[in-house]
Amino acid sequence: MLEVKGIENGVVLDHIKAGKGLEVFHMLKLNKVDTSVVLVMNVSSKDMGKKDIIKIENKVDFDFNILSLIDTNITVNIIKDDKRIEKFKVQVPAEIVGQIQCKNPRCITNFDDYVRPTFHKYAENEKVLEYVCSFCEEITKFEK
Amino acid sequence: MIHSNVRHLIEPEDFTKEEILNLVELGEKMYNNPQAYSDVCNGKILASLFYEPSTRTKFSFDSAMLRLGGNIIGFADANTSSAKKGESIADTIRVMGYYADILVMRHPKEGAPKLASMYSEVPVINAGDGGHQHPTQTLTDLLTIQVYKGQLENHTIAFCGDLKYGRTVHSLIRTMARFNAKKFILVSPEELKLPSSLKRQIQDQYDIEIQEVRYLEEVVDQIDILYMTRIQKERFFNEEDYLKLRDSYILTNDKLENAKEDMIIMHPLPRVNEIAYEVDDNKRAVYFEQSKLGVYVRMALITKLLEVGPYARG
After folding, report:
1. What pTM value is reported for the model?
2. What sign results for the dihedral spanned by CA atoms B143, B148, B150, B155?
3. Phi–psi pair at B30, nearest 5 degrees
4. Which tens digits make up the pLDDT trace of A64-106?
5. What's the order of all strands across the beta sheet hosting A75-80?
6. pLDDT tens, B214-265?
7. Which of B38, B47, B118, B290 has its CA 20 to 30 Å from the CA of residue A109?
8. Is the dihedral of CA B299, B303, B305, B310 positive or negative?
9. Neighbouring C-beta atoms of residue B31, cutoff 10 Å
């Protein structure tokens, strides 16, 4: 079995739905991080059957709540000196600024570099999260 | 971003119902006696920033400002502005605020006037943004409804044609929902139905029946206000789709046989072929008068945002 050693300091993102790890990797722009990052996919899990895990060394300043657009069950573990000092589930943000693009091809946010795309939470149910663009009012859906 | 107390009109909800009623009332007063307001904007400058072609809206604003005694500057073609050079809207607007007291913007991209308002120290008026909103057309429509129907509330309104990209429809339907419309009837081909997100927002907020039909004849006897729209070529990404749908709905006198005697037919203009010329002589047709009224309600709007004349402080 593949083994990945623990980290002394940093973040462990656990309970990522199997197959979603790469999306989480890109959402946090981990390709631009200059510390060690490990993405493990399809790890056996008692509760989930299979899951993905990401470990990021020596860096904790991320906006984790944006990950709720991918999977609201993700658990964030903050590690310091080999100990877990904080554990929490990602929260669905009320507002998202500059992190996602509007899907409306006619929206000004897709043409003017100056503007930061801004969205407000519109609705949420068991399956879907919906955000409305502050500029064109188009609703974007994210499956949970 | 600039945070100031300056008021803008970007979407109809920027004004309360009371403010809208007040503007409609003032627009009617100005229509009846424009001379009384002929110098309230002396020394003021309106800049019209039209990144997309317009005849009626641009000239209507120009005419409104001139009738108020003000001056106008601006451009009517994005190719003659710095947008052609890739300048951001924020930069253009910051500078235009030094040259004019009020800005009127039309832009093909949705949300552009909102972006402009975030960086403007002077009032910004949305004169149409893509297929999104056209709040001053809505004010024009409201004044027309007030003049020809006597009240804004409790009407059955049918919207016919391009309900998907028709920004005049998007602004008006939201506003009429606020004014307790009795019922909305949506008449359009499948490809040009009202955006589901907008329909949902109305249904979530208001208890108003919405009926969707393919053909006007099915419902014409129920309608108090028939709002026709053009299938707009500039909203389509390709010519083929446009040509396929262009002739979907053409209003003729035959189709109006069972219409109520006091129904009114409105259209934001320009029309292409969606209303046959024979309908112009039908007593229900008010679309040219509607265009005329637009000048006066825009005069009222300019005085409100500049806080002059009837809206002067103190």
Report:
1. 0.90
2. negative
3. -65, -35
4. 999 999 999 999 999 999 999 999 999 999 999 999 999 999 9
5. A37-45, A49-57, A10-17, A75-80, A83-89
6. 889 999 999 999 999 988 776 666 788 777 777 768 899 999 999 999 999 9
7. B47
8. negative
9. 17
CA distance A103 to chain B (A): 12
Whether residues A114 and B91 touch (CB distance < 8 A) is answered with yes
A115 CB near a chain B CB, below 8 Å?
yes
Torsion of CA B254, B160, B173, B31, to 10 degrees: -60
CA dihedral of residues A137, A101, B110, B237 (deg, nearest 10): -120
Find the helix packing angle between B287-306 and B17-32, rounded to 10°. Answer: 110
What are the φ and ψ backbone dihedral angles of A45, each rounded to 5 degrees? Answer: -140, 135
CA distance B207 to A37: 52
CATH homologous superfamily for the domain B12-134+293-311 = Aspartate/ornithine carbamoyltransferase (3.40.50.1370)
A30 min Cα distance to partner chain B (Å): 30
Which residues of B are tagged catalytic? Answer: 56-57, 85, 106, 134
Which domains can be identified in chain A, with CATH numbers? 10-89 (3.30.70.140), 95-143 (2.30.30.20)
Minimal Cα distance from A135: which residue of B?
B111
Q: Looking at beta carbons, which residues of chain B come within 8 Å of A117?
A: none
Q: Of A137, A139, A140, A141, which to mutate for an interface test with B (greatest number of B Cβ within 10 Å)?
A: A137
Decide: B132 and B111 in contact? Cβ < 8 Å. yes
Hey, where are the domains in chain B?
12-134+293-311, 135-291
Question: Which class does domain B135-291 fall in?
Answer: alpha beta
Instruction: Give residues with Cβ within 8 angstroms of B297, minimum separation 6.
Output: B23, B24, B27, B30, B136, B139, B140, B142, B143
B12-134+293-311 and B135-291: identical CATH topology = yes
CB contact under 8 A, B109 and A133: no
B130 CB near a chain A CB, below 8 Å? yes
